[in-house]
Each structure stands twice: as C-alpha cells, then as structure tokens.
Amino acid sequence: MDLTEMLGYLGALIVGLVLGLIGGGGSILTVPLLVYLLGYNPVIATAYSLFVVGTSSMVGTYQKHKKGLVDFKTGLAFSFPSFVAVYLSRRYLVPGIPETLLSIGDFQLSKGMGIMIFFAIIMLLASISMIKNRKELEVSSKSQPYYKTFVQGLVIGTITGIIGAGGGFLYVPALVIWANIPMKKAVGTSLIIVTINSLIGFIGDVQTLEIEWVFLLTFTLISVFGIVLGVFLSKFISGPKLKKSFGYFVLIMAIYIIYKELK
C-alpha cells in the first residue's frame, strides 16, 4: 500500500467521522478525495460516493431509529420520485452527457470539469446553509399537495444523481416544511431517502461502469467505522459549532475545486 492509498483510507475515516458528528457532508468530502487525491475520473468518483454515502446513511438510519427519530412511512413515500430520478440520472443522463460540453477558442469545458464545477456550486450552497445562523424551521399547519412534493423529489433526485451526493441538506427542510415533521425527526427520516437514492443510483452505475469492488468495500467499511466513532464523539463536541466550522471548510473546498478546474 503506497502513501497515496493510505491517505485515501485515512480520508475515508474522516468522511465517516464527519457523517457521524454532523449527520451530513459525506459526499462533499468523498468526491474531491477520490478525484484529486486518488486520481479517479469524476464520473467514477460520483458513483463510488453514492455507494459510500448510501451505505453510511443506512447505518445512520439504524442509529436514529433506535432513538425513535425516523418516520419510515413518510421517508419511503417521499423517496419514490427521488430514487426514480437518481436511477435515471445515473443510468442514462450522466452516461449521455457529451465529453465536451462547451468549446470557446482554446477553452474546452469537458464532461468531468462540468460535473466538478456543478458539484462545487452545490457545495457553496451547502456551506452557506451550514455557516448561516438560522432559526429552526417551523412545522407548517398543513402539508403541501403531493404532486408538488413529487416534482421537488424529482429535482433533488436529479441533482443527487449528477453529483453523487446524498442530498440530505435539501431533504431535511423539505420534510419539515411539506411533511410536517419536527426537525430532529426530519434529519433521521432524510437518511432513509439518502440511503435509497444513493444505493439505487449506484445500481444504475453498476450497469455502465467497471467497479473496483475491493477498494470500494474497504473504503466504505472504514467510513462506517468512522461513523460509529463520530456518533460516540458527538456526545462530547458541540454540534452547532462543529457544523459552522465544517461549513467554512466546505466553502474553501468549493472555491478550490472551481479554481482547480478552471485554471
């Protein structure tokens, strides 16, 4: 095992720690780690990220369920349009994206570059969400019509499919505002959706990509160990402060990715 591979597995542990400590952000670390440190193509990296985040979220769902913080009925109902969109994105949309998206003079926007820049934009939005001091979202007195939830699920699912992210930071407010679920339970319930979306999206990738199973399973197992450790450490660390600090880190990472891709 060379130094780069050792650093990659250390990164996997950190991914798990972050998920265990703040309940999100796994893909924000996984994709850049796979692309810039381990040298994977962005399409492969987003596929691997879906598996890592999906498996990790499954563990997180179990832990939240033990605390009574998961609404399975709402989570499963909400996940349907999302996982359809994720699967179709990974099976048809991502493979169908042309290798060259834009060509202006000497500048060429490749498929990989486009995916990473789009990923960085989502990271910027996530970082602002984590840094901003917001009051807890209030539960609405009546839920939104399901057809609107269906459309919203399709949109988030498509984003999840393209960038290989779990999308938890988008699902939580949707569950609070539209499904009338309290914030703490919304966080746990979102993990069901993230699990289903990510793993079904990965199934779409298995049909179009060659997967290095030994590496992926090892990386994932280390991340799961990190989650267990992170959940334990979360008892001793202030969640809000940690989330804000991680938000600034994500902001720096997003700017770095944009710089790296456009330089």
UniProtKB/TrEMBL annotation:
TM ranges: 7-37, 43-62, 74-93, 113-132, 153-181, 187-206, 213-233, 245-262
Compartments where located: Cell membrane; Membrane
Keywords (A to Z) from UniProt: Cell membrane, Membrane, Transmembrane, Transmembrane helix
Keyword Glycoprotein included in the entry's annotation: no
Primary location class: membrane
Annotated InterPro entries: TM_pro_TauE-like (IPR002781), TSUP/Inactive_protease-like (IPR051598)
Membrane topology: Multi-pass membrane protein
Alphabetized Pfam families for the sequence: TauE
GO cellular component: plasma membrane
Family stated for the protein in its record: Belongs to the 4-toluene sulfonate uptake permease (TSUP) (TC 2.A.102) family.
PANTHER family: MEMBRANE TRANSPORTER PROTEIN MJ0441-RELATED, MEMBRANE TRANSPORTER PROTEIN YJNA-RELATED
Protein name: Probable membrane transporter protein
